[in-house]
Amino acid sequence: MALPASLRASAIPAELELIASEHLVEIVPLVAMERTAFISGAYGPLRPPQKCKIPIWMATNLKMKKKCHIVPPQWLNIEYLQERLSRETSHPEFSEMPFRFAEIAKVLLDVASDDFQNPDKIRSLLKDIREARQAKSREGLSQLDHSELSLPNLCAMEINEIRPFFVRAMGVLTQFVKDPEARPPE
Length: 186
Hints:
By secondary structure, the chain is mainly alpha-helical. The protein has helices spanning 13-20, 56-64, 78-90, 101-112, 119-142, 156-178; strands at residues 24-29, 36-38, 41-43, 52-55, 68-71. It has a domain at 9-21 and 72-178: Methane Monooxygenase Hydroxylase, Chain G, domain 1 (Up-down Bundle), CATH 1.20.58.1020. The protein is 48% helix and 11% strand. The strands form two sheets. The chain has a three-stranded antiparallel beta sheet. A two-stranded antiparallel sheet has the order 2-3. Helix 2 runs parallel beside helix 4, helix 3 packs parallel to helix 5 and helix 4 runs antiparallel to helix 5 (119-142).
């Protein structure tokens, strides 16, 4: 959901991807490496062919150097995404998805698409899910009142997209409640 520059007061997608890169993902290392300490924690040891969990930033770095294969998260497969898409299009509420699903999926598919079965179909399903969820967000915002907005199961990217509009709209609505004769700022 693209917003005009005047409403973009929150993080850009690349910043959200950076935050999501702390999420742990499973890999199959192709090289041996001792346990290594970083600011965010110690990871390893890497012993091929044993799987291990490391942050996405480390997995993508190793993948680009052809030193590992990334194991797709359980939710990042065609069957799961088709079921989620079906729920999104048949139920009024948002289906439950991992909080940073959009960012994680983008990073992993950009770097390790060869580790996925049918990555183009996965991308297509993710796009359809995002479009269905954006339509629900727009519908929810159209029903905005001064007391509350309930949109459970929104993910980080979706919250980030609607936050500037929501904050501004709530300010205007609060002003109306305080002074019903007030006109909205132009």
